[in-house]
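Exercise 7. Given the components listed, write out the predicted structure of the assembled complex. Treat all entries as one system.
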Amino acid sequence: MPSKREPRRYWLMKTEPSEFGIDDLIALSNKTEPWDGVRNYQARNMMRDEMKKGDRVFFYHSNCETPGIVGIVRVVKEGYPDPTAFDPKDKHYDPKSDPENPRWYLVDVKYERKLKRTITLSDLKDKAAYLEGLALVRRGNRLSVMPVDERHWEYILSLE
DNA sequence: GCCAACGTTGGC
DNA sequence: GCCAACGTTGGC
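Answer.
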């Protein structure tokens, strides 16, 4: 009987290195971080419903000197309610998120590796012809969590 | 620091 | 349900 091949899923997540960059992730003893604080419904839906354990994620540095993909992380815990939404002292507190009916969800990601070099946003824009449909290079895109097609994933890694 | 693009809010 | 006002994102 042919074995059923698990669909491999790929994503990209943005973070500001001045807040939490890849070196901050590496410095953690378990190299694992709950991706809390996301307050966007599209991103929420992906973390809550679609991201699966083992999925791989491009780790993207935004709002910095050289925006780009700096590494790869892996989903190690699937969607669960974002506890920071319930904490009045937290920067991302949302009084409308009820623990009985949570509004915000997150996943945990674990460090896998750094890229040999940063694949910059500028690199990706130069290769736009090969990356048609990639949300990151669509005009005005502001999503902080987005899917990446397998063909785009492979192509981007070939630029490393 | 600027500002375009976008999501959310709230008055009506 | 419309849409103007507002706040945020994020490249430059």
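Discussion: The CA atoms of residues 17 and 65 of chain A lie 10 Å apart. The mean pLDDT of chain A is 91.
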